Please model this.
Amino acid sequence: MKVKSALLLLVLTIATVLTGCEPLMVLNPKGPQAERQAHDILLSIGIMSLVVLVVFAILIYVLVKYRASKQSPDYEPPHIEGNKWVELLCVGIPVIIVVYFSIVSVQSNYIVEAKPKQYQDQKPMVIYASSSDWKWHFSYPEQDIETVNYLYIPTDRPIEFKLYSYGPITSFWIPQLGGQKYAMSNMVTTLHLAADEPGEMMGRNANFSGKGTAENTFNVTAMSEKDFDKWVKDVKKTAKPLTEKKFDQLLKPGHLGQMTFTGTHLEFSPAPNLHHSGSEKSHDGKMDSEMDMNMDMSDHDK
Model:
């Protein structure tokens, strides 16, 4: 009776603690890329849980069947040869699981690295996301505005982030929209994301980059295209222009609140020319590396 009471108390305690936990952001997706990743996580948890249950069931069976018994002192257990089918299952099942996970991982990697399938016919909005100690700068070339430590994006439109850093390597991550990708000082990496529904989300630097990493976060707000256009117009009316002197001040190590400017730092401090190629493509369908090669050739002709 005491054991049952203790187990019941343990279960109630765990249930009470878990009710106070917020849902994991990666399991509460707001975009197609994050939805695919959440599906893979739940699939992995399900298969691993099944494996654990089977292993524990076998363990209990073995402990019960082959437990110590009151045999005579001269009892000798029968000689048992190995069973090739049992050995084949013990080796074959893990191999099948690993192969299956590998196939799923490769397929998902191609899906999340490309522009979301349902937005293939739309032109993506390009946003340059650059980091410095310990803040994020978001440049909107199409809208000619820039924000610091916060990001506004329209829903139902693909977003193409161009990532790079003005300091150490950082990792751009919005858990509810997709996985992380590194931002480096001498190249631009591309990350494709999209938001399916309006709402507020959290983004952060997922890579340790000094004492200010814990506060190296930014707020993300997804809104309708109409509300986004209204926000852009309001910024154009109220925000001050971003000057080179002001931008140099922003790059100094430290933490800042949210800031908004007209113009972008790309005019006087452009992104690095080197692009990470791999499977990444620019919004017009050409490889980034090919674009850079064409630019270099044109400059040489001049």
About this structure: The longest strand covers residues 125-132. The radius of gyration is 27 Å. Residues 32-65 form the longest helix (34 residues).
